[in-house]
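Readers of this paper often ask what the protein records in our data store actually look like. Nothing more is needed to write down the fold, since each code stands for a local backbone conformation. Below, we set out a record of this kind in full and without editing:
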Amino acid sequence: MSNAQPIAEDRVPDGARPPSRTRQLAAASIGNAVEWYDWYAYSFLAVYFADQVFPKGAGNSLVPLLSTFAVFAVGFFMRPVGGLLMGAVADRRGRRTALTVTILLMGGGSLLVALTPTYAAAGLLAPVVLVLARLVQGLSVGGEFAASTTFLVESAGPGRRGLFSSFQYISTTIGQLLASGIGALLAALLTDDQMGRWGWRIAFLGGALLSLLGLWIRRGAQETLAPVRDGEPAERPGLFEALRRYPRQSLLICGITAGGTLAYYTWTTYLPTYAQVNAGFDKGDALLVGTLSLAFFAVLQPLGGLLSDRIGRKPLLLTFALGFAVLAVPLLHLVTDAFASLLLVQCVGMVLLTGYTAVAAAVNAEIFPARVRAAGIGFPYSATVALFGGTAPYVGTWFKQAGHPDLFPWYVSALCLVSFVVYLTLPETARRPLER
């Protein structure tokens, strides 16, 4: 049985009542779902607003889409900054403070996307506004993972860190599901012309409003960062203290994340677009398949988290990495313009992916002590996601434009093999107490 630290008297002020675990889960998960709805709405609706914001290249219809995914990647490269800065806020001022700031930034970025002018109306100002909005959202989402990961795992009871960890991707998936579902609904109700002219803006305006809801819910959360005990040093951790004092752990975060983030963004975000540009799949049907597979994925997460609490984190991680290393190429080659083929490929990938997503938050949090946990996770994790996850749609579309679409599946397979080697070296942390 795990000796994980619960949220108990030593984690709240003297005389205060320990917070309900259900309330803690709700505060983290609902706010996180709103954050990721705002983030993912961009990728699901890119095919509709690309032509509005970017001009077409001479005779090449992929130029606007490629440019839009380049901005998607630019937003990811702001995530390490957010992970570092918001992680430091979480370690210095508390997890709840950081979670409040991140959701405010995300709502503002979503509103800015909704108000982005067209290229025809504003010229170069249009892509500049879009880039600025994604930079703000990238800063937010980089800090969100660091703060919410530490908050969730520190809120867990004995032997339940894996289960609580899974809520990171349950809520992330709910956010994706909302984005995909609303995108599919708008596509069903509106014509392609209406979606391209103004329909896509509705989704981003809704995201800005949902951010206010998430902010209100998070006000009820209680802090999980333990107060400084008598006799302990009171100075707050430096901005780069985690990197300086724990370089091995920082590199481990990169290795743990590399294959997982590429597989994750390929299967949950880019696959509908991959099917459209490589197999001629219908836009609306691709969004519907994405929505169905994401619902299936959300159901799998707590099962994976519970299993990891019982048998450990490593077996799930190794199954994920080896599965993708072997099956990524044949699975992506099975994608055709048939509805059933894309749904099958996406659901098989979701089963394998759960071995990573259900335990990633727990594994990351179990590597660092509480004093630098948020910043220690935030920077290396977000930097790796930016390098491999955020560029997945761009790299896949670029391979297609270059005439080598078959290389992208091999790229996914190779990086998952690298992570498999890293997982072999990891110690099992499921039954270790959470370091304070």
